[in-house]
Write a structure and sequence with these properties.
Number of domains: 2
Radius of gyration: 25 Å
Largest sheet: 6 strands, parallel
Oligomer: single chain
Length: about 400
């Protein structure tokens, strides 16, 4: 094991993780563990690697996204379709704490790497399995990507202006939500393992992770038959909370939905009459008059620039903000002060800005120990640690088992 993993002082230092996933959901979960000190061995197919290496904008032959998704990991190039490669996985599992995979259900079983087989090798192993629809149920064998899960989970229906086609969130939010649920599951299972000494399987479905964030959607339907629909930039049933156009063509997002906050907002925009109106002292009363309230706020913002609007509302302690582009993010002093605009040195000597570590831990914060690996960068080191000789590695490389 290389020095940066032997001597990591992160919160998860000493945790050994085998990552068999690709693209987004499984690798994001493993990245989160790696950021906080876990030794993550990422297994990729020889020759091509994880497809994410070639997604979106490329620098020096590799996606810059790769530097975020695979930082702090080690790369083992291994052809999982071959029996000798599967035997290597079982050797890794014997010493691992966690295995993460996000293949279609049945793939692991077809390689002889079913949960039962792996738990037989290591009864304390924790297996995170992320898939579109989960490992059971009538849809389990259907291919499932984040965009489909977001729709099935209820999010896409709400992401639109009323009467217009739903739009997607501009990032792979379904995959990321599933990843974070997976990390929570891993930490729960590790805690329980302290009592039982046993591992277990964590079954995360993308659509369920999305559905879990849908707040009151289902109970409102159950109790009232209410089918919540798209509301654009507003938050239905909560008033006022919306985006308001300013004089300079930019939008201010204003959340004046707390009772005392609403009063401060109305005083700040010169509507003392509404601040004192007894029918608007609680959310229920404001929801009944939300169109009137939005029109009042919109009339005020339309006379000021977004900067002027935010200055007034900051002074009045009313939650408000502008819509950030990545250009805004990269120049923001708060992002910088919080360590969220990290820099890594690339192989050509240039610097690349990447997101910092989340969450913030006071004693054992996340840290950048190494850049994302090149394909198979750590193959020899990992296999030598398993007791496989250099000659054996050379022979397997000739036969395409490892890369």
């Amino acid at each position: 094991m290389t020095a940066e993993f032997k001597h990591s002082q992160g919160a998860l230092a000493g945790l050994k993780v085998v990552e068999l996933g690709q693209l987004i959901a499984g690798p994001f979960a493993a990245k989160t563990l790696a950021d906080f000190g876990a030794d993550v061995i990422k297994i990729e197919p020889p020759g091509v690697g994880d497809p994410l290496r070639q997604w979106r904008l490329i620098k020096d032959g590799t996606s810059v996204w790769w530097q975020v998704q695979s930082r702090n990991k080690r790369s083992l190039a291994l052809d999982l379709r071959q029996a000798e490669a599967q035997a290597i996985v079982r050797k890794l599992v014997k010493e691992a704490d966690v295995l993460i995979e996000n293949f279609r259900p049945g793939a692991m079983e077809s390689w002889g790497l079913s949960p039962d087989a792996l738990l037989d090798v290591n009864p304390g192993l924790i297996l995170l399995r992320i898939s579109g629809y989960g490992q059971t149920g009538p849809y389990k064998d259907k291919p499932g990507f984040g965009v489909v899960a977001e729709a099935m989970g209820g999010l896409r229906h709400l992401s639109a202006e009323p009467g217009r086609l739903p739009v997607r969130v501009g990032v792979s939010i379904g995959d990321t939500l599933a990843s974070l649920h997976g990390v929570i599951g891993i930490l729960m299972a590790l805690h329980e393992k302290q009592r039982s000494g046993l591992g277990q399987v964590i079954d995360v479905a993308l659509y369920e992770a999305v559905f879990n964030c849908m707040e009151s959607l289902l109970p409102e339907y159950s109790a009232f038959g209410a089918v919540r629909g798209p509301a654009g930039s507003a938050l239905p049933g909560i008033a006022p909370s919306n985006a308001y156009l300013c004089k300079d063509g930019k939008c201010a997002l204003i959340a004046g939905n707390g009772d005392s906050i609403f009063k401060r907002l109305m005083l700040a925009i010169g509507r003392d009459d509404l601040a004192a109106d007894p029918t608007l002292t609680d959310n229920a009363g404001r929801v009944k008059r939300v169109e009137e309230i939005d029109a009042v706020i919109g009339a005020w913002t339309s006379k000021l620039s977004v900067t002027e609007v935010l200055a007034v509302l900051d002074q009045a302690a009313v939650p408000a903000g502008r819509i950030y582009t990545v250009e805004d993010i990269a120049a923001d002093p708060h992002y910088l002060a919080r360590g969220m605009l990290a820099e890594v040195s690339m192989s050509d000597g240039s610097l690349l800005k990447v997101p910092g570590m989340v969450p913030k831990l006071s004693r054992t914060p996340g840290q950048h120990r190494r850049n994302a690996p090149s394909l198979g960068q750590d193959t020899d080191a990992v296999l030598l640690d398993l007791g496989i000789t250099a000659d054996q590695i050379s022979e397997m490389r000739k036969r395409g088992i490892v890369g």
